[in-house]
Amino acid sequence: MKGGKYKEETPGPQVKSLVDYAVEYLAGAIVSGRLNPGQQIKEEEIASRLGISRPPLREALKALEMEGLVVRRPRKGVFVSEIREKDVWEIYTLKMTLYGLATSLAVERVGPRELQRLERALARMEDCLARRPPDVARYQIYHEEFHGLIMEIAGNERLKRIALSLHKQVKRFSYRSLTHEPHLRRSCARHREILQAIAEGDSSRAERVSRQHVMEALDLLHQILSGQGEAPLETEAGQHRGSLQRAM
């Protein structure tokens, strides 16, 4: 994915702290690919663009380093972290387990009000998909809202905390997969299936489709990273993925 000029509007520093302002700007640029993996983040240039001094920018970079979005190289500077297949494999297999479990738990606790909230989030996702071109950035926001609601309905606070800690690492990969329109359409259809299974009280189907949805994203990401298009992967992660699919 090629980087480009960061054009989206961001809230000014009068609204958020300078550190939060810088974190939001840089995280958005990294997630969307406007800052490429391996690209150096030049403090002077970013500080000038944002109209802030270097100290809050450095604090923002520390926060992004803790989230795994940037790496600091001694005597060289700060760089956008590379996307490794191992990272994709680890994050998405954990995500698959969390989403599947949360969806299964939510089936047992959901009520009419919660179903309405899920329907609203999904309707917004479908609206983003219907636009030309599809609005991937906003789709991702409502996608996160949909799964956040499922986590909330599931009622397991520990599961929810783990999912939130994983969220920012997943977001960069998720955006990358959703920029492929066939996957975006398949993703939206899977969410309609998930909601239908929840509404019908079918916990096993809801869990199965949730896991399948994550595995489809994982497959696409491995294809993107390997440059193999739609061809099956023969990486170590791909072999593990085959074992998982057989177990599903």
Could you walk me through the main structural features you see in this protein, from its secondary elements to its overall organization?
The chain has helices at residues 18-32, 43-50, 54-66, 85-109, 112-130, 136-154, 157-178, 181-199, 203-226, 236-247; strands at residues 40-41, 70-73, 77-80. It has a three-stranded antiparallel β-sheet. Mean pLDDT is 84; it is low at 1-15 and 229-248. It has two domains: 18-80, Orthogonal Bundle (Arc Repressor Mutant, subunit A), CATH 1.10.10; 85-247, Four Helix Bundle (Hemerythrin (Met), subunit A) (Up-down Bundle), CATH 1.20.120.530. It is elongated. A hairpin with a 3-residue loop joins β2 and β3. It is built from ten helices and three strands; from the N terminus they run αβααββααααααα. It has 248 residues and is mainly alpha-helical.
